[in-house]
Amino acid sequence: MSGDTVIKFLNEIILFSIFNFRKVLVINKNSSAIQLNGVTKYYGNYPAITDISFDVSLGESVGFLGPNGAGKSTTMKIITGFMPPTSGSVSIAGYDVVSESLQARRMIGYLPETVPLYTDMVVREYLYFMGKIRGMSNSKINKRIDDVIEMCGLEIYRNSIIGKLSKGFRQRLGISQAILHEPEILVLDEPTIGIDPIQVVETRDLIKNLKGNHTLIVSTHILPEASAICDRVIIIHEGEIVAIDSPDQLGNRLRGGVLIELDIKGPRKQVVKALQNLDGVRNVMRVTGEDDGTATYSVDTDQSIDVSPKLASLIVNSGWELKKLETLGMTLEEIFLKLTTTEESIKE
Amino acid sequence: MRNTFYIAWRETRAYFLTPTAYIVGAMFLVLTGIFFVFQVTSTRPEASVRSIIEWATFFMVFFAPLITMRLLAEEQKLGTLELLLTSPVSDWQVALGKYLASIIILYVTVSLTLYYVLLLYIFGSPDIGPVLTGYLGLLLYSAACGAIGLAASSLTSNQLIAAVVGVAILLTLSFADSVGYTLSGVIKTILMWVCMDAHLNDFTKGVFDFSHIIYYFSVIGIFLFFTIMSLQSRRWR
């Protein structure tokens, strides 16, 4: 490529190649891959995220789950160093994203929410450029381009103009540029948004295959996606973390859990306390209350133990009135809604 | 430094692969060509590059922003700026790479006007001095226009707005002297000094004055600095 030879030549004659001095990056195995400490971001007076703190250890894959507008993309942009937090700090493999930005950025492969593609470029050329600005050598780039093109199933589009690719293939190309330089950490913002269901499955499989080679953080608003891909799920709502758990645990806690709705007439605080102390009860929430002392409680229980008879006898023995006892099924999505819709949770 | 060249390389390729640069470049050459023909076919034709330089700088005010408008505006629109700024590339490397690409395109176009100079040499015998200083002036002027156009492009994701803002700044700077003539005192001095065209006159006359070179480099420096600041502004927005 003639452009390349010119660049090489210019490189040699330019004396301030001091700028080329590339620091060897050392990953401290003890430090977390990604660490957020009380990160808050304001857009004007409006807080997009408030006091977000979490750790992602090396090799882990974490799902960042939340409804639209929860602050997922904002968090991703802060992690990748595109914008700084208003307060708090983020470190990538021990490098602060604001003060040691370039080192931190070298560790990251990033797929933003809007797939960033130069639509007038050819697939191969685009990947070449992305490799170059991340400081890869020519021989390495050419090898890796072939690898990622194969991995992402882009073989027939190798020499196509990006503008002519379908949305699904653009998404894949977006992922290929993110993994091209074999980054330690991979940040994918809504990787399956806006593509058709078959491509969604394919993209998910692709991401699953990336697990293990990279520390992975994937944002999504689709719960099954997070539980399919990730070791751990962070649920965020209105800019705050509501839950951090493994999908299994979350699933156990949720899918395995049975929700029982009770209408009880009795002193509310005592009722809640008594219900919470019962074996097999995990959480008690008061949904509504009426003036005559009757209130509706929703009780989250273990699936393994059938709690309803015990609940009934407890209430009757305590001398309260049991007006209704209903067992509700529970899917992950419903719980997700429960977790993220504001509801008064009673804690003693 | 290496990153600057890769960004410039990509951008220059993009220029050659998209029609905008060809169309705008052709228009620039046609317009300067027409006025060159007017000059040599007038009743008192001159074997000098003066009119070429003057008309070229006049059209450069419109040509440069049309070339530079896509540089950062399009990146913002495509979302690739996010990618570029999260890659291990510093803001100044991005700005400089983009600037370099626009300079390459502007200079390629300007160099095509040398055809008129060639004609002058075939049919007349112009002094070499004013030709050299004239073209030096034109190159400096174009480089300043490019920097201003790039700064305008960093402000918006809309290419049209970028072009209009660029042209507006350039028109203000190139007609500042016309306003200056009607005034007096300090304001006049300032307006005359700020004017981009006023600094060109000496070059077209064949006078080589370092203060003018410093002026054009200052304009380039200021607007490149502004571009870098504009890229960094996302940090305190």
Topology:
The complex is a heterodimer of chains A (348) and B (237).
Chain A: H1 2-13, E1 34-43, E2 46-56, E3 61-65, H2 72-79, E4 87-92, E5 95-96, H3 101-106, E6 108-111, H4 123-133, H5 138-151, H6 167-179, E7 185-189, H7 197-210, E8 215-220, H8 223-229, E9 232-237, E10 240-245, H9 247-254, E11 258-265, H10 268-277, E12 281-289, E13 294-301, H11 308-317, E14 321-328, H12 332-340
Parallel strand pairs in A: 3-8, 3-9, 6-7, 7-8
Antiparallel strand pairs in A: 1-2, 1-4, 4-5, 9-10, 11-13, 11-14, 12-13
Chain B: H1 2-17, H2 19-40, H3 50-68, H4 70-78, H5 80-86, H6 91-112, H7 114-123, H8 128-153, H9 159-182, H10 185-194, H11 201-205, H12 210-232
Structure, briefly:
The complex is a heterodimer of chains A (348) and B (237). Chain A is of the alpha/beta class. Chain A contains twelve helices and 14 strands.
Structural features, described:
The complex is a heterodimer of chains A (348) and B (237). Chain A is of the alpha/beta class. Chain A has a domain at 257-330: MTH889-like domain (Alpha-Beta Plaits). In chain A, 35% of the residues lie in helices and 27% in strands. In chain A, the strands form 3 sheets. A 6-stranded mixed sheet of chain A has the order 6-7-8-3-9-10, sandwiched between helices. In chain A, strands 2-1-4-5 form a 4-stranded antiparallel sheet. Chain B has 237 residues and is mainly alpha-helical. Chain B contains 12 helices and no strands. Helices cover 81% and strands 0% of the residues of chain B. Chain B is globular. Chain B has one domain (2-232). Chain B has helices at 2-17, 19-40, 50-68, 70-78, 80-86, 91-112, 114-123, 128-153, 159-182, 185-194, 201-205, 210-232. In chain B, helix 8 packs parallel to helix 12 and helix 9 (159-182) crosses helix 10. The A-B interface holds A 3-4, 7, 10-11, 14, 16-17, 19-20, 77, 80-84, 102-103, 105-106, 108, 110, 112, 114-121, 125, 129-130, 132-135, 177 and B 1-3, 5-7, 9-10, 12-14, 17-18, 78-90, 234-235, 237.
